[in-house]
Amino acid sequence: MADRLIVIGGDAAGMSAASQARRRRDRDDLEIIAFERGHFTSYSACGIPYWISGLVDYNELIIRDPETHRREHQIDVRLRHEVVKIDLDRREVVARDLENGGREVRESFDELVYAAGAVPTVPDWARTDAGGVFGVQTLDDGKALRHWLEGDPKPKRAVVVGGGYIGVEMAEAMIERGLAVTLVERGEQPMSTVDPDMGRMVRDALDGLGIDVRTGVTITGLTTEGGRVSGVRTSEVTIPADVVVLGTGVRPNVRLAAEAGLPIGPTGGIRTDLRMRVIGAPGVWAAGDCVETLHKTTGQPVYVPLGTHANKQGRVAGINIGGGYATFPGVIGTAVTRVCDLEVARTGLLEPEARIAGFEFITVTVESTSTASYFPDAAKMTVKLIAEKGTGRLLGAQIVGRSQSAKRIDTLAVALWNKMTVDEMSMLDLGYAPPYSPVWDPVLVAARKAVDILHST
Amino acid sequence: MADRLIVIGGDAAGMSAASQARRRRDRDDLEIIAFERGHFTSYSACGIPYWISGLVDYNELIIRDPETHRREHQIDVRLRHEVVKIDLDRREVVARDLENGGREVRESFDELVYAAGAVPTVPDWARTDAGGVFGVQTLDDGKALRHWLEGDPKPKRAVVVGGGYIGVEMAEAMIERGLAVTLVERGEQPMSTVDPDMGRMVRDALDGLGIDVRTGVTITGLTTEGGRVSGVRTSEVTIPADVVVLGTGVRPNVRLAAEAGLPIGPTGGIRTDLRMRVIGAPGVWAAGDCVETLHKTTGQPVYVPLGTHANKQGRVAGINIGGGYATFPGVIGTAVTRVCDLEVARTGLLEPEARIAGFEFITVTVESTSTASYFPDAAKMTVKLIAEKGTGRLLGAQIVGRSQSAKRIDTLAVALWNKMTVDEMSMLDLGYAPPYSPVWDPVLVAARKAVDILHST
């Protein structure tokens, strides 16, 4: 008789695991059931801002629909089914069919993949029965927001809360839809995923788009009118709003896992080993936005909910379930985003993160161009490096610049991944031609300057 | 009394060495004389094609002019002075002043930097007294070509010989100037710096520009008319030409060095240690297009005349002369170029190079996009990897693609530099956001596929 794999969560991590397991074990050997609470499988949540702005169509965000999973991978995908209980002793799950009055189904498993993702952090002040307050974490969230934006009366003023990636991307999307946009951030600068000295450049770009950026602001509540949101109250003023978008982050969706006794780590995510096995729970795997992972630079567990990790972790779990061997080695905190034509990227640790980890370090910031400086419209590019005192080891890097800047973070990411020192980095053999870089690539210029500082301290 | 440093060659390597030495030792401690045969110092030879095409002005290619070197670095730059002899026993050089009837000057040195660069490989058939045949290696070469192109009668038909970087870039520059262009390449495909399967895509791009590409063709001679070139003879036909540009490569300019008894390696370049000291010649340094260097992947000496290496090697020599410590660790063969809007890049070894080095390997080629595939105008990108059998270590990588493709070679270059295996690479934490990459970056997709192949062989 075939084993049975049950997957909880039909997005990147869960469906990658399912597909990989299927590649290695056919249906006579492994039956696969995937429960998904929403209406979609395997979609690019990171693309939602570009759908809201109108740049892409929502169905383009769906990488693989349920029918394809069923037909090509013989995966029994059950949409609108919310798993409500995991019973590890009886090795079964209980799911509720949300379309049929909550009818419960009970299915046993040999292997279980927990890939329930993340849930948005909803601040207390944002809990309201009034319409017009949205997260943008799932495609279902995005649909609800689009519907509101196109509704009657048409919203004209948006407040976006939180200046991280999602907040900044959503603020831009709203501006592109013609709304007046206020971005509210608690910290010193928007784009809190880079240090404030780099974030200042992002703020300038947001200003340039006509976004009203307010930093150092704490929100205290909402005002409503006729069942609709009408404003966001801060300690000082009330900002009028017909729609409020929450970019206040997410936390791992682990309630079910915790109830079943699966181990939750210090970050709030599920603890797994390098093969994505849940610690202490044979036959149970976890992957994606619900797990914590190793930060390779600090050696500490960290929670980094990103599609790129979810895909890899799901793949790793699936290969192992399929009888292969794969490990997920951890992360180094690489991320990129775009604000209008400004590109923003980071890898490794920010200054405060490096300090908390116990490192002493030097920092260096250089301005260069992403092409030869004499090239027409040579694009400005700022590179910041953080290097350990003494060893000179690269601990973190940040880039803010125009065209062709952001993906240079990968060069720095691979250097950091390999524990390179800025000394070694300054002699790296990188590609040079005038349309692509000055003869000293900005990455090399930064490394060179870091060497000078290290040698003079 | 101050020591004296003499530098032979006033371009990237020589002047980097001079400037770095000056940064560490003031004029009371070190006198610096630099002899340069041509009219310019410290310029971007790689920018010449973009000057010929009219994209940039030639004076923008000059990074630092002689006057700046004299004023800011107190370097006694002597233009139009050709060094004709190095006497190691007497520790002096003899230079000829080309502007003053060849008057000879004799200067002693304590330290000598030999940075005489490269000389173009001129095939026998190209030696002619007729006008219209040009190399494009120096700014002086570029000036002569520009003059011819703007002369009377105005050339209408160009033949570019050699399908390497320079040839391809020059062919494009000529097309942009409105000439009819034929590109003649001896090998199977143009862009011989990548494997033929990748070169085929470059050929398509050249075809698209209207360049008449002829491969597998051997040139036998020139035809001339009234003291001007009129055509290029091949074994089969004569191709009419009012101007012929040689992109037939360069070789190290080592005549003087060899006459002085400095050691020449198997590649024809001068042999140095990692600090850029000429082997067995105390106080003599060499850097740039006249030296051979270590290929970090094969462990063999290699000749790679590129501005990026020249700058680094010059810097290393200068730091050491200045009393600091620096080494040039070698190269891995990274290079990028652009053909119209097609981006071409490589790092590490091509297939035949890997074979000659003694490696057994697998290759993998994947097609992907440089942004999320659902992004408007998602640009196609092809990645080829060469990985060692057994270990899975990356040996080489090639990229051909549209926008945002080429500089991804740096990600692969740093991975290769650090001897990463494709297994490790497939889990790298690279930047992901829809404007910059699919959720699996093309680099990761290629690594993943290489892993599959390695595990199945």
UniProtKB/TrEMBL annotation, chains A, B:
Keywords: FAD, Flavoprotein, Oxidoreductase, Redox-active center. One of its GO terms (molecular function) is oxidoreductase activity. It holds the Pfam family Pyr_redox_2. Transmembrane segments: none annotated. Signal peptide: none annotated. Residues 4-296 form the FAD/NAD(P)-binding domain. Residues 337-438 form the Pyridine nucleotide-disulphide oxidoreductase dimerisation domain. Its cofactor is FAD. Belongs to the class-III pyridine nucleotide-disulfide oxidoreductase family. This is NADPH-dependent 2,4-dienoyl-CoA reductase/sulfur reductase-like enzyme. It comes from Micromonospora pisi.
